[in-house]
Amino acid sequence: MNVPDLEGIDDVPYRTSADVLDATEFGASGIVMGFGYVGMELVPYLAEAGGVDLTVIEHDARPLDEADPEFGDRVLDLYREEFNLDIRTNTYEQRVEPTADGGVRMTVENGSDENGRTETIEADELFVFTGRRPVLDGLGIENTALDPGDGRADGEWVTDTMQARDDPRVFVVGDVNGKEPVLHVAKEQGFLAAENALAHHRGDDLEAYENTHHHVMFTGLGVYPYARVGHSAESAREAGLDFVSVSRDAADDGVFKTKDVPEGLGTLVVGTDGTVLGYQGLHYHADAMAKTMQVIIECGLGVREIPDRAYHPTTPEILDSLFREAKEELG
After folding, report:
1. DSSP readout, 159-220?
2. Secondary structure, 3-state, 82-109
3. Is residue 269 domain-resident?
4. N or C: which end of the chain has fewer CB within 10 A?
5. Are 295 and 271 within one domain?
6. 17/130 Cα distance (integer angstroms)
7. Helix orientation angle between 317-330 and 286-298, rounded to the nearest 10 degrees
């Protein structure tokens, strides 16, 4: 586990994501450290299934670092309204200590306060959802020619063909190679590594792993999942691409209302030549639409090539609307 080096953390009991999934009961209240992938998925579970009154500590102004700001803002609104969460943004943990009744007390600092105002929060339980850290301990790597650096996989010790730089006969996949710590990426790398190992044995050229950004987070108990495929508007801007971006509220398409899931937002990023560069969705069935958008983006299709078909009353009509709006924006 990636447990933060926080004053007092060794003196209080805490539950990790694995502990939560094994638990059959929880306290009435809890403090959550970590509001990334793990926290975003488990916090609604604790609030709904566990009935826990939660205070969530978020270091930034909003969650969802990989998303454009409006998606992080929508998540905050959704979580506060639907799950009755107390989410403290721009807030930093200072220390924790046990309470006399077996609970936990946390001192936090409001980073947006010029005076550095601190306050204490008390709860029955502490949940640490700060992720996991790849480990190479116990493999005996020190007895080989391999040098992974600090042992935490900084990404420099493995090439794009999944080969270790210090020994091309060794192939490294998953979070230990420092490329991207996501399960489906590790599976893709594993298939490629197997093919490359055979190619290396034959003396053939090896193929580099090229990844189009494709993430799905089961936010909002999976009812309102967040998906991103390809570029966000912000990443396209950072890459120096010429593009237009169009967005649409899920509530603007009647099918979401009829299914009683009216919250959410979809955004399409399209190059000025019409090529679809990216899609973000925070809405019902956004996870299911991610594969369709992955095919469109990785095949380099343009919005003018995609058939203008309406499949009403199905939720992918939000994509139809985005394609039409993008074509209108391009002129």
Report:
1. -TTSEETTEEEEE--SGGGSS---HHHHHHHHHHHHHHHHHHHHTPPP-------EEEE--G
2. HCCCEEECCEEEEEEEECCCCCEEEEEE
3. yes
4. C
5. yes
6. 9
7. 40
Which DSSP helix (H) or strand (E) runs through 222?
A: none
In a domain, 134, yes or no: no
Tell me which residue of 10, 15, 93, 100 sits closest to 50, measured CA to CA: 15
pLDDT in tens, 183-234: 888 999 999 999 999 999 999 999 999 889 999 999 999 999 999 999 999 9
Q: At 312, which CATH number? A: 3.30.390.30
Same domain, residue pair 238 and 304: yes
Q: In whole angstroms, give the CA distance from residue 80 to residue 280.
A: 21
Say whether both 186 and 228 belong to one domain: no
Q: List, in order, residues 6 or more apart from 181 with CB less than 8 Å away.
A: 132, 134, 174, 175
Tens-digit pLDDT profile for residues 186-196? 999 999 999 99
Q: Are residues 154 and 244 in the same domain?
A: no
State the total domains in the chain: 3
> 84 and 27, same structural domain?
yes
Closest CA to 225 of 67, 54, 12: 67
- Only one residue has tokens 């916090």, namely 43
- Domain extent at residue 167: 141-202
Beta-carbon contacts of 5 under 8 Å, excluding residues fewer than 6 positions away, are: none
b/e code 93-102 from CB counts within 10 Å (16+ = b): beebeeeeee
**pTM of the complete model beyond 0.85:** yes
Taking a C-beta distance cutoff of 8 angstroms, is the pair 266, 319 a contact? yes
Residues 69 and 113 in one domain: yes
Amino acid of residue 215: H
